[in-house]
UniProtKB/TrEMBL annotation:
This is Scaffold protein FimL second domain-containing protein. Residues 157-292 form the Scaffold protein FimL second domain. SUPFAM superfamilies: Histidine-containing phosphotransfer domain, HPT domain. It comes from Ectopseudomonas oleovorans. Pfam families: FimL_2nd. InterPro entries: FimL_2nd (IPR058661), HPT_dom_sf (IPR036641).
Length: 566
């Protein structure tokens, strides 16, 4: 028997007609609460919908219809305002169901995951717990992959390092939960989990950090959205690590493992570690990406709302137009000065119009003060044609444009154009802050690049079994990093980098110390911690959470190297 989306044509016309009837009866009942027959007809129609979907075995749609019917059955005749939420949930559920079936009718593949938001909304309205993202995902969870041991450390030392790795994971997790430096946070989490997997490989639950490391790597590479549920999942991983450190016989929750495997399948990346995990558990990547899933959910719920993003792009275009006009006027002024005559151009009028449009656009999106800064420039622009203009006359407008550009360049969620001061001094200060921020960003990029190159060189040193030539440039690279951190006002981080440089120079290059993988892993832990600190903007922890520089200092002490910062 044909089932699923291919069988939809068998019941298509009747199914859509029944959905329309159910929606019509329900809408009338919302207005005429005293008419219980309308509610009863709606319930009967929803029951028929569920029966038809059960017949053709359309899993996600069948479950959505079932949840809708459950809520509808619980609504009494003459339902008061206390049932408004339930009625709206039913209406939304029917709307999503109809849109989903329309997509299947147009030839799109089955994707029951699209229906989970509507299903969970109905479950919450009925007092039931939400279903997890992985509800429709099938995988065997009884597999126990063998994880190779990469360390010869004793149990006590492995436990100590594993606790330090959990601290490192917590630092990255905190940034991830707060949506701060998401990529850097995920990278740090992956590093901590990889090390934890190697250190805890012989425990009952040693497979969990091994799987979680692959999932975090896939999460970053696949650019998955950091939803509330996914944040909670990675927080559960931290709790599992805590229990594993306290009890080597602890068995991680199967639900946590399944969620991790689902996200890995959704990420669909081709890295060695993610592929190894997928092979071990016998599944392949899903037939859709996270971006496609989110786009599909928005299509079902209604048109997406990316207005602010579109407006930002429009503002940038208007800003570029104004800057181009200023460049043209500047060229005309220089040519006119050489020929001892005033420029005659309609660019002044165009500049007046474009600056006015840009100011009004900013005001329209609620950025009144920034718009007023530009509006205050208009009287001067209107006089440009009628007076002997010099380049200095363009300075106030250039400052105002730099201010707008700096505010558009702020990280999402930080700062606001609404708080722009209107005084001239305030504009100049804002521009100066922008330029200072650009310089600081350059130093951060240089420091991050230096740390990345140094870690790559250490990896090559390990792969070559101790060829010190690979480390020749590392001290100079780390000195550059140290200088950047010092000028950025992070003396402790700079001192920790100096300690790493000293260890590499004295022990690995000059001392010819044996190339021990475990030792180099600890050195990499220190550099990874400093790298995360740099990528996070170089800010100290203020809320009692594990400080990433403390973890770097602990790693340096574990190397047997002394430092004032450690």
């Amino acid at each position: 028997m044909v089932t699923g989306a291919r069988a939809l044509s068998l019941v298509r016309e009747q199914l859509f007609a029944t959905i329309e009837e159910a929606e019509s009866h329900l809408e009338r009942f919302i207005v005429e609460r005293h008419c219980s027959s309308l509610l009863q007809r709606a319930v009967e129609s929803i029951g028929q919908i569920r029966g038809a979907l059960t017949l053709i075995e359309l899993a996600g749609a069948q479950l959505l219809a079932h949840q809708t019917l459950q809520i509808a059955n619980d609504i009494p005749a003459g339902a008061g305002p206390e049932h408004d939420e339930h009625l709206m949930a039913i209406c939304r559920g029917l709307h999503v169901l109809r849109r989903y079936l329309e997509q299947l009718r147009s030839g799109q593949d089955e994707m029951p995951e699209l229906l989970l938001p509507a299903i969970n909304a109905l479950r919450l309205a009925g007092g039931e717990p939400e279903l997890p993202e992985s509800y429709f995902f099938s995988v065997r969870l009884d597999q126990r992959p063998l994880i190779s041991a990469t360390t010869r450390l004793g149990l006590r030392e492995r436990q100590a390092q594993a606790r330090r790795m959990r601290q490192m994971y917590q630092v990255g997790l905190l940034g991830f939960l707060r949506d701060v430096n998401g990529v850097a946070s995920l990278r740090l989490m992956a590093r901590a989990l990889e090390r934890s997997a190697a250190l805890l490989h012989d425990q009952v639950g040693g497979y969990l950090p091994w799987v979680a490391a692959a999932t975090v790597e896939g999460f970053a590479q696949g650019r998955l959205t950091a939803t509330r549920e996914r944040k909670q999942l990675f927080a559960r991983v931290d709790r599992e690590l805590r229990q594993m450190l306290g009890n080597e016989l602890h068995e991680p929750a199967r639900s946590t493992l399944k969620e991790l495997l689902y996200l890995l399948a959704l990420a669909g990346v081709e890295g060695a570690h993610p592929q190894e995990v997928m092979n071990a558990y016998g599944f392949e990547r899903l037939g859709f990406t996270d971006a496609q899933l989110e786009a599909g959910k928005k299509r079902l719920a209604g048109p997406g709302h990316a207005v602010m993003h579109s407006l930002s792009a429009a503002i940038r275009e208007e800003l570029e137009t104004v800057k181009d006009l200023i460049d043209l006027i500047e060229t005309e002024l220089r040519n006119g000065a050489e020929q001892n005559r005033l420029p005659r151009s309609d660019n002044f009028s165009r500049l007046y119009v474009q600056v006015g449009l840009l100011g009004k656009t900013l005001e329209m999106v609620g950025q009144e003060n920034a718009g007023q800064v530009l509006q205050q420039c208009l009287p001067n622009i209107s006089q440009f044609r009628d007076k002997s203009l010099v380049l200095d006359d363009l300075a106030p407008l250039a400052d105002a444009l730099l201010l707008v550009e700096s505010l558009l360049g702020q990280p999402e969620g930080q700062g606001s154009l609404i708080d722009v001061p209107l005084e001239a001094d305030g504009v100049q200060v804002s521009v100066a802050n922008y330029q200072l921020g650009e310089a600081q960003a350059l130093l951060h990029r240089e420091a991050y690049k230096g740390l990345t190159d140094a870690k790559r060189a250490i990896g090559a040193f390990l792969d070559s079994r101790g060829d010190a030539l690979h480390l020749a440039t590392v001290p100079a690279l780390l000195d550059t990093v140290r200088g950047a951190l010092f000028f950025l006002g992070n003396p402790r981080a700079a001192e920790l980098v100096r300690a790493c440089t000293g260890y590499i120079q004295r022990c690995l290059i000059e001392g010819g110390q044996a190339c021990e993988p475990a030792t180099l892993e600890v050195l990499a832990d220190a550099l990874s911690s400093i790298e995360f600190f740099v990528e996070s903007g170089g800010t100290e922890s203020q809320d009692g959470t594990p400080e990433i520089l403390d973890i770097a200092a602990q790693s340096i002490r574990a190397l047997g190297w002394t430092s004032a910062a450690a």
